[in-house]
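Example record used in the benchmark description.
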Amino acid sequence: MEIMQHSSSFLLPPIPGSSLKYAMVILNQRLPRFAPLIWDHAKLRICADGGANRLFDEIPQFFPLENPIDVRKRYMPDLIKGDMDSVRAEILDFYTNLGCDAINESHDQDTTDLHKCISHLSNLTPESEKSDLCILVTGALGGRFDHEAGNINVLYRFSNLRIILLSDDCLIQLLPKTHHHEIHIQPSVVGPHCGLLPIGVPAFHTTTSGLKWNLNDTEMMFGGLLSTSNIVTGDIVSVRSDADLIWTISIKK
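Model output (structure tokens):
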């Protein structure tokens, strides 16, 4: 089975020649402290509806010695997309007057704003390039639990895409059962606490290496064993499973 490799190098300063192409989606929760770094990695930046409010209100706080308007102009998103029930009218006008595109999808109430943004990125990306796309989502964790669950569900709805949900405290991504996985650990920015979770269906056979408490053909399910509060012990964590798994690892302060 093909090996899929993962890393958290997007939490380090950009290095020329990266094989992955990053996109950033900003949701309507507080920007993480590393938001400007994620912005620098991204080639395309999208605000999901009220995420535009967060960008407008909070990005100047990262640059307290600069004029807030200058900062907001420098950090202009490429697109604002969603059902537009949260973005403030004056903020929408500010960004669109600068040349930002806006797409109102209020007719679609069956999908979340994150789903709409991921679908847009998926449609923009040729099939041959989707394996090189990595979508970094800020504001996906924290706040209402049903919103968090909806964001995690997007990982499953677009399991053919590499999507990482970010908060100040941790990251979450899907490890599809279609691949074996090698997770390259950047110990200066992530770890050591981590977890592996099957959501929706049991994982009957999961094997890992590189963890303090490795799994050896282990069965996991809600109502049974889950690999939570585990600890990475090496530079690479390997995961093989017969089910899609959620991988999470702490982000260092």
